[in-house]
Every structure is written in C-alpha cells, then in structure tokens.
Design a protein that fits this description.
The protein has 284 residues and is α/β, with parallel strands linked by helices. It contains 8 helices and 13 strands. 33% of the residues lie in helices and 29% in strands.
C-alpha cells in the first residue's frame, strides 16, 4: 500500500476552510487520495480528514507541520498529521478471557492492523502461551484488590519504558487509575460488553437478561476517568429472544465484542476518529 500522510482537522466552522487547505495542497502538488468532511450545526464545528500521497509532496512530515502551521493558526485548528508508514506502538492489556485478545493478535499477525504490538500486560498468567506464540513479550502484573497502587505503579512503569502511543484494553477487567487515564487521554481504547450507556459496570448481560431486552451489544470507546462514559468509537448489536439464556447472551455477546473492538482499533490506527468534547466524528 502506498505511503500517505493523514491530515485531521477540527475547528470552528466558517467559510473557506476546505478551499484554503485544498489550495495549500495544490500549491505543493499534493495528491489527495481520500477526503472527508463534516459540519456540526449544533456545535458550530467543522471536521476534516484528508489522505495525501506522501510521494507527491516536496517535504517530509516535519516540514509539512512548519508550512501548514500558519493556516492552522488562521482558522484556530486543532490538527494532526501522521505518516501511514510509521506504525504506532501499541500495548494490549488483558485478564483471563481470550476472545478479544486472540482476535486482535490474529488480525495483527495476518497484516490487517498497521501497528507494532510491543507487549501484552495482564493480571493473570492464563494467556501467556498464546501471546508468546506470537513472539510478543508478556508481562503479568498482579493487581491486589486490597491495595492496587503498587501493581498499577508497575504497569505505568512498563508502559513508560515501552514508549507506547496507544493502550488497548482487551477485556482487562480492571479500572485504570485516574492519573493514567489523564496522561493517555484519547489514547486508551476499551471494549465494554454492553450497548452503552445502558447496563454500564459489572455483569451487563445479567442486567440485560433481567430487563428482558431484545438486543444486546458491545461498545468500543475511549477511556476517561468516568467509568464507561468516554467518547464512543463504535457499537454493534445482536438480536436475541426470550428463549436465550444468560449463557447464550454471553456467547453471542463475545462475537460482538471482538468485532467491535477490532473495528474501533482499526479506525483509530487509520486516524479516522476525531474526538470533540465527549463525542467522536468517525470517518469510516
């Protein structure tokens, strides 16, 4: 696949934004391979994602940032530019359940995910053999429920040492410390086995069963200090009936969980998600 630069922008909406960016790229013979735009009339904000052939531009990423900065200042843009040829460093975190982790590792192994998975951090030994088969380092850090601080201090030290750009909670089943959530704001992805905001917290399938729902689902979202309330990246649902047991719902839900997490992760890795306040714009 040809190397591209991915430019994402959010800013107050006004006339001339697309024209200014397009003229800038045209001036330097930039070849746009994909362009997406969205204007939100409720908030008055504008969102944009352009993908440009890297080979068509006369400068590298650092020079692009320098040359583009005056336009960004003129329109009060929050913006970023990334290189598709540089794989983000990702750490996966898991517990005992394997379905989400196994699915991500399979997709990574088959080349579906443009990332460098540098390690798996878990709080149990159950998944070590599966991870090490993929030749990925496995770190087991016990989180003592009576005093979680020492365990999470070790987790943070590991993450810092790995130079991680993205953390993926593949059913980690632990609430991360607020300080870690703040440091990696917009860079921690979680899968919740529920169609948020319904049935947040523990045992959502039991809650759904007791409520007699006809749809169950899964939600991929960014982690914030507020449990299960971060910006939503992707969701999906599965139809069920009165004849389905809690065990049936858990089994069916696992299919939704791993699919939604993989989809959300890929969207993030391709810079297709822009966070604005507690919502996202997703250019799928």
């Amino acid at each position: 696949m040809e190397r591209t630069y991915r430019l994402t922008v959010s800013c107050p909406d006004r006339t001339g934004i697309v024209a200014k960016v397009s003229n800038f790229l045209t001036t330097y013979n930039g070849w746009i391979t994909e362009a997406s735009y969205h204007a939100d009339p409720q908030t008055g904000w504008f969102f944009m994602r352009n993908e440009i052939k890297a080979s068509s531009l006369p400068f590298d990423l650092a020079d692009f940032k320098t040359v583009f900065a005056p336009i960004a200042d003129e329109f009060s843009m929050s913006w970023s530019i990334s290189d598709s040829g540089v794989k983000p460093r990702v750490v996966l975190m898991a517990s005992r359940e394997s379905h989400c982790l196994a699915d991500i590792l399979h997709r990574w192994h088959s080349g579906e995910l443009n990332a460098e998975i540098v390690a798996v951090i878990a709080n149990h030994e159950d998944l070590r053999r599966m991870v090490e088969w993929h030749e990925i380092p496995y770190h087991c850090v016990n989180i003592d429920p009576r005093d979680k601080a020492p365990g999470f201090a070790e987790v943070e030290q590991l993450i810092d040492g790995l130079g991680v750009e993205l953390i993926v909670l593949a059913r980690y089943m632990q609430i991360l410390p607020a300080a870690l959530c703040e440091r990696y704001n917009g860079r921690i992805i979680n899968i919740h086995h529920s169609f948020l905001p319904s049935f947040a917290g523990a045992k959502p399938y039991h809650q759904a069963y007791d409520r007699g729902v006809k749809l169950i689902g899964a939600t991929c979202h960014y982690v914030t200090q507020d449990l299960d309330e971060g910006p939503i990246i992707d969701q999906d649902v599965i139809r069920i009936s009165h004849s389905d047991t809690i065990e049936d719902m858990v089994r069916l839900g696992k299919d939704a969980e791993k699919t939604v997490l993989a989809r959300g992760l890929r969207l993030h890795l391709e810079d297709r998600v822009i966070i604005h306040e507690n919502k996202t714009v997703v250019f799928a």
